[in-house]
Amino acid sequence: MNPTGRFAILIPVYNHAEGIVSVIERARPLAFPIWVVDDGSTDGTAACLQNVPGVTVLRHKKNLGKGAAILTGFAALRGTADWAITLDADGQHDPGDIPALIRAIPMELRPIVVGSRKGMSGSDVPWTSRFGRKFSNFWVRAAGGPDLSDTQSGMRIYPLPESASLGVEARRFQFEVEILVRARWQGIPIREAPVGVSYTPGRKRVSHFRPCVDFCRNTGTFSRLIFLRLLRPVLGRRIPERPS
Description:
The protein is an alpha/beta fold. The protein contains 7 helices and 7 strands; from the N terminus they run βαβαβαβαβαβαβα. Helix 2 links the parallel strand 2 (34-39) and strand 3. The chain starts with 6 loop residues before the first strand and ends in a 9-residue tail after the last helix.
């Protein structure tokens, strides 16, 4: 049996003018509302989205980060959707895998469902993605988060409004690992379901991951989470939230 509730597709995008329309068109057959958050793109993405019918577009005036874009989407969907299905704008995800993610939601539970990408050991997969996944999986566990095979996958289903109120501080790529840790701390179930991934040779793929900068940001995020985990007994398991 499938869970009840209203689903919406949420796509954060930053400078993916060449691929965002294709991602949207591949998601249309699912017949879910599609929301795109343009995180301050400067490459013509905004102009591309103006010509796409049947899509709700939100825009940040400047680039604030992937996590900030997702939170903007969560806030906009409040009251209109019970679940947000996130897709990356670079085309690596197959929207046809979304029904499998939905089927992974147990009845009467409201988990976060993460799409565990298959084939991530292939030679066509960037080394930064392979290394980053292993690095992230280890430190998510060390911070008291769930034991998952793919903590960096951007293809997920989030329960709303629960996911918007976890006090996540990270606003860039690190948002996606911090929310898993904080969800585990707060007792929100987390599930995985296998999904495909495409790093097709010859296809231009735009990635905004910067190995040095984002490694430092990841290290800072995990250090903060581990510190908070150690403080939990002192705080009575209450984790301070990000100031408003």
